[in-house]
Structures are given as C-alpha cells and as structure tokens.
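Repro:
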Amino acid sequence: MPAFICVLAITAPAGAAQAHPDLTGVWTNASITRLTRPPGVAKLVVSNAEAETIAKANPLVAGAEAEARESGPADRPPAPGDPGGYNAFWLDPGRTLATVNGERRTSWIVDPPNGQLPISANGRKLIAASRAAHEPDAPSGPEALMPWDRCLIGSRGSGGPGMLNNIYNSNYQIVQTPGAVAIDVEMIHDVRIIPIFPARAAAQAAHGPAALHPWLGDSTGWWDGDALVVETVHVNPEQGRSGPIYLSDQARVTERFTRVSDRQILYQFTVDDPAYYTQPWRAELVLNAGPERLYEYACHEGNYALPDILAGARAAERKR
C-alpha cells in the first residue's frame, strides 16, 4: 500500500527579510514570578536575599519543600472525603523569581509601576459578568466551564497573547523560517503560526476580517532591527473574557521577541484595550533555554474530565 506524506510549507510573504536572529529552539518561562506583583511586595526589583524570602513564602514552593520533608510514598491516598489532586511531584512552577535584564523581578508587569493590572470600572463589570457566567463548582453545561477545562486552550494564559508561565508545562518550541514563526505551546496543544512581513504596515494590512475570532487571536509579525514584533487582534471573545489577561474585541497586543544570548530571549508585550483598562500596560519576561524537546499534553475537548464534572454537578443537584 503506498505511503502518502503531507507537507505543510510556510512560505515567505513577498519582500520578507531573510537575515535575522534565529529564535528557533525550546524555551521555558518557568518561574514563581507572575504577571502581577504578590500582595505586600512593593518593589519591582529586589535583592537576592529578598528574592529568597519571597520564594520561601510562595505556596507552591513551600508545598514542594514540605512534601520533600514528609515520609511515606508520594502517591499515598488522600485523606477521607478529599477527592485528591496534584501534589508537588507533578508540578513544575519554578523555585525562584525570574531574572530579567540582570534584575530579580517580582512581577512581569513593569508599567504601571505598582505591578498590577490597571482595570477600569467598566473592566471590573465585564470581569464580574464573565465570572457569573462560568460555574466551575456547579456547571449547567460544558459552556459554563473555562476554555482550559474544556481542553480548548492552555490555562493561565500559557498560549498568549502574551504568553504567561504556568504551574507546569511552561515550555515552548519555536520554529522560524524566513516567512513565518511557529510557536508550539506545551500546555494543552496550542500552536501559533505567525506570518512575517517586510514592514509594520504590510503586517497590519494582512490581519483577517474582524468577524473572525480565532483562539489566541489573529497575529502577524515584522522585524524591527533584531526584534521580532508580533501584533495580535481579534482574540476569541471566550478567551478574552476568561483572563488572566482580559481582552475585548478592541484589544491590540504587541509582542517583541529579542534574542539576547544563546540561552535567552527577552520577551516583552504591551496590551492596549480601553474596554478593560485605564491605560495601555506593559510586561517583560524571559524565555530561557529549556528542555531538549516537548511532549504531547494530549488534552482534548470531551476528555474524561468534562463528562465526569458535569455528572458530578447533576448528582449534587439531585441530593439537594
């Protein structure tokens, strides 16, 4: 029986530049630094000693250390009445604050200076409405669950825009050609394919119709010197309402990827969305050289968890 091979060719848009830094590789943004600054931490940049104190207070780090001190098997059954869940053995959030431009950072957000999302009054209303529509404890149907519970996109903003670290699987594989960059996100199964154009105007003109709202948005890119700039619009409304980066149909996210060394990419992004925020805001993080390869997460819509969650909700209703 003959074998058939399907090849996907990513071709260069006319006039695309050919000689630029290569972003190809497997990268990770695993760290206990998060998008926003933790409660009680005022400064963006801290000393190594302060960073160690913050790390020790982090629940994921503290939990991992406590489990390491405990005796007995790591897979021992949960306490009676406890359905169980991931223990620290299965998590990989990182153990330290990230170092960005030689500084120990307490948040990815650098502007506003307080390290918090500048949510407007209207933005708070939109977020409250979204939370009311999602019913994680007693979902009325599959649509009441978050997109990542349904295995549609990665949780905690892993896929972007912008691409945030998770409690595990904070890894990305980038494949670069003269005409496009593909970013494979380990968390679930997201792949961003970003065509590269010779200039900003051509890239912006290449966005698809506003009526199309793909998961992870409509992204096009261009080179600004040694930095790859990616602009994303038209994010799927369900993704935009779910956070942690809230985006409306007015949102524009601009990302910059700069290869600063053999083992690191400086990754910056700016979010401009007047529906949710009082001002455009900016974040900086790093993608460090990661594992040699990614492995399939194999999460798919209709996974065992979805019918089980819904069945549990219906059983709870019958008991009331």
